[in-house]
Amino acid sequence: MKAGWLIMFMGLLGGGRAAAQSDYAVAHIPVALKSRADAVVRREEVVVDMLSPTKVYHRVHRAITVFNRGGEERARLVIHYDKATVIKRIEGAVYDGDGVLLRKFTKRDCRDESAVSNFSLYEDSRVKHYLPAMAGYPYTIVYSYEVERKQNLIIPAWRPEAYWDVAVQHSQYTFTCAESDAVRVRAANYRGNAEHSVAGGRSTTTWAVDNLPARRYEPYSPDPETYKTTVRIAPVNFGYYKHKGQYSNWEELGKWMFGALLSEGMDLPPHTVAEVKGLVDGLASDREKAAALYRYLQRKTRYVSVQIGIGGFKPTAAALVDQLGYGDCKGLANYMRALLAVVDIPSYYCVVEAGNAKRSISADFASMDQGNHVILCVLFEQDTVWLECTSQRLPFGFLGSFTDDRTVWACTPEGGKLLQTPAYAATESTQERRAELQLADDGTVAGHMRTVFSGGQYDNHSEIAESSGGEQMKLLKTAYDIDHVGFGQIDYQKPDNEVPTLVESLEVTLPRYAPTSNGQTFLVPNLFNRQSSVPTVKDRQLPVYINRGYADEDHFTYTLPAGYTVVGGPWQTTLDSPFGRYEATVEQVGNQLSYRRRLVLHGGTYPANRYAEFCMFINGISSSDRHKLVLANE
Amino acid sequence: MIKTYLTFAFLVVFAGCLHSQDFTFGSLSSEDLRLAKNDLDSFSNAAVLNEYGKAYMVFDDTKGYTELIVDYHVRIKIFNSDGYQHATVVIPAHKDESGERADVISDVKAVTINVEDSRIVTLPLDKSQLFKEEVSRYLTHTKFTFPNLQDGSIIEYSYRLRSPHIFNFHTWHLQDEIPKINSVFEAIIPAMYTYNVILRGPYKLHTQDAKLNRGAFRIVGRDVDCSHLTYGMRDIPAFVTEDYMTAASNFKSAIYFELSDIYRLNGTNVKITKEWKNVDRELVTHADFGSQMKRDNLFKSILPTILADTMDDLGKAKAVYRYVQQRIRWNKYLGKYSESSVKDALERRSGNIGDINLALIAGLRAAGLDGEAVILSTRDNGVVNDVHPVLSDFNYVVAKVNIGDSHYLLDASDPLLPFGLLPLHCINGKARVVNLKEPSYWMVVESSQKSTTQYTLNAKLGADGFLRGQLTTHSYGYAAWNKRKELANYNTADEYIEHLDERLTGFEIEQGEIMGAADLEQPFVERYDIAVKLYDSLGSGELFFNPFFIRRINKNPFNLDDRTYPVDMGTASEQRVLMTIELPAGYALASKPDDYNMALENRGGRYLTQTNLSDNVLTFSQLLALNQSTYPPESYFALKEFFSRIIQQEKIDVVLQMKGAQ
Fold first, then answer.
1. Beta-carbon neighbour count of residue B628 at 10 Å?
2. Contact at CB, B88 and A304, closer than 8 angstroms
3. Average pLDDT, whole number, for chain B?
4. A412–chain B nearest CA distance, Å
5. Phi and psi angles of residue A472, each rounded to the nearest 5 degrees, phi first
6. Backbone angles phi, psi at B97, to 5 degrees
């Protein structure tokens, strides 16, 4: 122990220990990789060795240096496993900043826990993890492990830049299989050439990256998939649990999926079949029938995630969902498909990468690891309708920002097909708000407010609309975030429009909102629609990406107490930019004060050098949204 | 916290007896069907219609020890889909370290009851939908959710828990996140076990009854009498949480049990709830506690290096504290006991709270100082029993060093804490001080420093509408600790400042420096040259300026109509803002926020603002002080109003007018 202390001391003094420094000494890290990095991947070697479709070895060796508290979690060793994944070996060690070995660890030191995600009731996946408790920074963790996978339908992909605050000194990925194995490879954003060799009937390919600095987080940037290096592997012949198959494209994979996992489990009990037939009785069009059945699904079921067996790809049988009244996205989509089948309306089970950021299935590279959600595409003679089957509140045919405007993979009896989900243009995604308000002498603002949410913005308040009581009040207070805001006469309507529309009307009260001091009253007329600002970072690297365009319009009329006048008279701001247009005006006529605001934001991608301009636009909106009026009262 | 000790006189003596007070499974009353949302309160989306539990003991001949059996049964009404979350049930089962003595959940029975076309339809839980999740080595969850939920569904379930853990018998939680109409608990306790029973929370029991069950417990061929206790409460409101609260379990209504004595069949009496003097002896000789405190020999060789030529006791204490703080890294496990050992922790440079702070005490003792151990319960672990020694209540240990007439509380688990400051999670009322020689004693742990921040802005408003100047922030106590933790997330101060600059969109930091980051006992000082664009141009009219742009409060943290538990911030706090702004020549003060001086009663807090203009220099000062760490429920409304007025005040601008522009 004493020796260890002395060594540390000498290190501090910088005595002639340079020769004794191991490879892991922090001194060996290039300066450029330390900038903005909370941690550095010193060396990463991932080897995937496919011996047969049901025997794939996955070996990982990784050395990570942690610089500060922010990078600590990056040192955690995490291995997910399930019934088809066996952890063969884990070993590792921790080194100090000089590269001196501090201690070793093995599988025994890892914690083993269930890995049920927070949205699931149950999953049969588990995780082993380890994080050393270290007395200071920097330090380096080095570990290697081997995992045997009993399937090759999903081969672990290589994503060397997993975190934006981690620099990568060296990372390489090697895939080995029999020379005769047909394998499809997709290397995205990989500069350089993969090294390929054949020896003893085994074919080996290695990809490598060196010296990638940490990135700074940049707001309004595109999907990382579009610029980060990824290598994905998809073997043509695969084994998966008790299934075998082959595919080289979405069509073939869809054909297998449909035949193996979707062709059964469509039967419904006779009483449900009778009920379904009764529901559509007298309805003329398929569209009306489908809408009636969608309402039936929404009434009868709720989303509960249970992931067991077959890697979570096979939907629960429709009859079980019928009995339980719940299911996950697969089970519910399949149940809806079964309900539609009763009345002879065909529909497609579609796999989608869901999330607010739009991400499409890669059209030219089929693989089973894409997509995380299932929706249903209903086929009518002339057109199609998309259904989100996990929601109790979305209107018929509306997808919302979770799955809109992207390519999805439909599994049909004829094979897989790629389809595009609908998008709402900025001009169709509207929020129009009108309010007639009274300003009282004590500064209280109260009155009636009506907001119409349409198209892409339909979903803004639909959760509030469907809730009630205290929960609804809580959600409203979050949506209209002003201190002590109160609501009454809350009402929601869903008119039967071509574009889905939600109308919210309520009485709003803001006690003592506009304070008075020395005969002047201060009023920010824009109550609720205030743009937040964006950081004005210099040296922007990534393009500017606006995920979704929209159009907002606010018109507030304030009836002022007698004798109140706006100091400085009418006020107006207009901001015009390639990203959109903003206009705000204030006018007073008699005791009526009128505030209007209109913002149209265009979705799209703009070059990085337009970021400053973008900031000016957004921050200009932000500051004029907070414009405070001074009212002089006699 | 409100605690009532429940004691009983046996009024009725029954022979044998007994019919259970459980309600019949699946048999609804008309009240159950009628109950609607808002009948109980305006916000709950589900309610417990009836709840019943019965706990009794059995002696297991094969295992050779007594086990507790709890039969639990509840009926819940789900008013709407927001209440569906209450239809997912998670029943935890614990295992001890050895993995031998484990809780077992069995006989799970669950049904959904719906009214369809005025018929009552009952749907049982499908056994395939009952899941057991092995969360970790020590914990298994039995999980299920109810089928076929609709608005107005009634769900009902029951299960049996068999547990070898009898020390706390079975805690009966009367109050929950949803209201309860009725809750009844029967505890049947063999005469050989004596428990202290405590009712926590503000509400009164509706039923409280005691009977004698003759020979109801059979152990090695003998029948032992049991006390049969019944507790009932009706119309229990939902428990609503809000910010600045310690563990909810401190305030929720519940019945707690704690084993005090066991009378063995051979007539001997084992005292479980001991006197502190017995506990002291146990702790002082405990291999993972007292023995670790005594390991001062581990410091003998390194001590001269640690102390260097420090002579005074305070200097020595600080040096030892620094050493342990730097030497051993906290592995994120709590505990009053040493997990590995002080020796191991010093060598491996990592350990739990026990390892670290017992090492600190050993080090202090090695330096010839009076070091004591303070065992406590962290804020989220609830408060400790201060009547009987209940060691399991304590989950943390810190060091107390006595120097002259002063003492300092030390926690070496965080390398950024200054000497004498405990982390906020340790500030939780009473703690017990354990000494190797003297009897132990209670102390109330309070934060030794406030959380203080002082902002000083010296700036000049230019003709171009820009405000430029220097903003200096001094942070002390907990505020400094928080800043240091934030700084520790960056490699350099420059990266920290750069990030701050990116985050503050109104401001631009042109240059900055940080001082006192390394010396934990100094204030943490940030000095930034800033520029803020206030106006497009100064023009000739009026200038409106809102001085409340530093640490502005936009939201009142207190919004409940009624709060039954105290506001507990852990520490007193103080924020000061002082601005001096040089204006272009020729401006006069047209109006300004009224100078404000508002106080909370009993010197609980103060809010002050002051604005002046003289010789073209605008000065503004603001003070917000909350002098107490805890405010009782009676002060809640005053506190709410205090914040409400601050928010009003902060909306008001200073109005400047060009002289002669009238």
1. 20
2. yes
3. 89
4. 30
5. -65, -40
6. -50, -45
